[in-house]
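The following record pairs a protein chain with its ligand, FE2/S2 (inorganic) cluster.
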Amino acid sequence: MMANKSVRVNGHNHDIPDVWYARRLIDFLRTKLGLTGVKDGCSEGDCGACTVLVDGQPMCSCLLLSGVVEGREITTVEGLQKDHLERFSCACEKHGGVQCGFCTGGMAVMSSWIKDGGTETGVEPVSKLVAGNICRCGGYQQLTKAIVEVG
Ligand code: FES
Ligand code: FES
């Protein structure tokens, strides 16, 4: 008997049914697993709202097929460490980094990656990274301050 194809998401194993194998990871996460903190802003890899960690590296889940992540470890905003999320939320509140909130999940994932040593902290490197995640409300400076504070 063939083993089920599976992926680990936020610390839990999930089978990837055949019907989902060639569908986008973002749809598997949002529709199949109900992880709606992963947002679909552009479907083209341009906005970063769909950012998740794949084996610890930030990637756009709108550009990945579910089958490609078989056997990998996925972390969505819902699976980030609670203490980091709390610190990030407090820093966003302090600096005015959340307006409509559409970009916040992807920013939180990037913030977690930065905190875990993904890149240098400091205003310049963080602001370059934040520019890759589109904030339609224009909160880049506020978000940069928040991410630097928790980085
Ligand atoms: S929805 Fe994936 S980058 Fe915009
Ligand atoms: S807070 Fe609205 S898109 Fe960033």
